[in-house]
Design brief:
The complex is a heterodimer of chains A (213) and B (176). With 213 residues, chain A is mainly α. Chain A is built from 10 helices and no strands. Chain B has one domain. In chain B, α2 packs antiparallel against α3 and α6 packs across α8. Classes of the chains: A mainly alpha (213), B mainly alpha (176).
Chain lengths: 213, 176
């Protein structure tokens, strides 16, 4: 096809478009997250009362760190769908935030005295249950972010997919905090980490396929 | 300044002005051909420039009118170029087409963004293999004979060299 023919076709196909806006995408994600959380409370999934939650020593730590990670990674993921944006700096900050969160959690707990204690504290049956719940709860933000990525034009897919995975995973874990009865940071870091890894891996494989342009 | 004019035309195009869009695409088509002529074999230039025009059409909503147009265009052109380099890397065992050789533009040796400039940062064995097979159009066997290497080694050098080129290109700053 000649250039002239192609240009004629594209000009003939032209329709007005609304430029992509960061804040409208962020509002869509906030809506998805808000609806998910409201539904969880409505169906009784998040059934711990606030009084009981506040007595858990790790409740504030989990809520603040996961909320911050989700917010920071979510904002950076949405920005990374702009072709001119480089997420390198944002990822460094988020990695630092995750590191500080894990270290902070370890200050709240004593380290296991031996292998037997570690195995007991990891409580793998409940741990797998937690991890699967977190992976499930991360699906709505994961889908939302991936669809926004498809509409955008990410040029650094490696970082975009990581940010999408981390944001969705952190949100899933954040939502799960409201129904999680476990306090031990060793348990939380291990099993929350596993649940989050599922979402990160899903973004790793699905986003490049879905948002390729 | 072309960039300011293109920005104005793109904003008009986003609002549905077909004549502004046509003017913009004509100018971008010329710019893209010139951009890729310094980076790709001649036979690929028009094909990729057209592909990028289609991409610009599909992704025109991702241009933010409050920002300069140049970086947006530059990053899309570069992204598609890297994509093409990757495709070249994946298809190195394909038969070469006639007319694949690129003309010597002269500018190439002096621009930090040219294919030659990037190739100068490769190992000589890799650069020579890519130059002979991918640019001058020799078969892998002919290149192996000329370089005194085995066919397998030439293929490995092309494969690794193109991968390295992709990484170098990705690390380059935007044109604008």
């Amino acid at each position: 096809m000649s250039f002239e023919t192609l240009i004629d076709q594209l000009a003939d196909d032209l329709e007005p478009v609304r430029p992509r806006r960061f804040w409208s995408d962020a509002a869509i994600m906030a809506l998805i997250a808000g609806i998910e959380l409201a539904l969880l409370f409505a169906i009784g999934f998040a059934n711990l009362d606030m009084h009981r939650l506040e007595t858990q020593p790790t409740f504030g730590w989990r809520l603040v760190t996961l909320g911050l990670i989700s917010l920071a990674a979510g904002f950076a993921a949405i920005r990374s769908f702009d072709p001119t944006y480089s997420a390198k700096g944002a990822l460094r900050w988020i990695a630092a935030l995750v590191g500080v969160s894990v270290i902070g959690g370890m200050f709240l707990a004593s380290l296991p005295g031996g292998l037997a204690e570690l195995i007991q504290r990891l409580d793998w049956i409940d741990g797998i249950h937690c991890a699967s719940r977190i992976a499930g709860l991360s699906i709505p933000p994961l889908v939302g972010l991936m669809l926004l990525g498809r509409r955008g034009a990410p040029t650094d897919m490696r970082r975009s997919r990581l940010l999408v995975g981390v944001a969705a995973a952190a949100w899933g874990a954040f939502a799960f905090v409201f129904s999680c009865p476990f306090n031990d940071p060793v348990f939380i870091v291990t099993w929350y980490g596993l649940g989050c890894s599922v979402a990160v891996l899903a973004a790793r494989f699905i986003l490049p396929w879905l948002a390729r342009w | 300044m072309a960039e300011d004019k293109w920005r104005t035309l793109m904003i008009a195009a986003q609002n549905g002005d077909a004549s502004a869009y046509r003017r913009l695409l004509v100018e971008l088509g010329s710019w893209l051909r010139s951009y890729y002529a310094r980076r790709l074999p001649a036979a690929m230039v028009d094909d990729l420039a057209q592909e990028v025009l289609l991409t610009i059409h599909a992704k025109r909503h991702t241009y933010d009118p409050s920002k300069p147009f140049g970086p947006w265009l530059g990053v899309i052109a570069r992204y598609k170029w890297i994509d093409r380099l990757r495709a070249m890397k994946d298809g190195i065992t394909d038969e070469l087409e006639e007319g694949l050789a690129a003309p010597d533009t002269g500018e190439a040796a002096h621009s930090a963004y040219t294919l030659d400039a990037l190739m100068s940062r490769l190992k000589p064995a890799q650069a020579n293999a890519i130059r002979l097979v991918k640019i001058e159009g020799l078969s892998v066997k002919e290149a192996a004979e000329r370089l005194g290497q085995t066919i397998a080694l030439v293929k490995v050098n092309i494969h690794r060299g193109l991968r390295q080129l992709s990484e170098l290109a990705r690390a380059e700053h935007h044109e604008f």
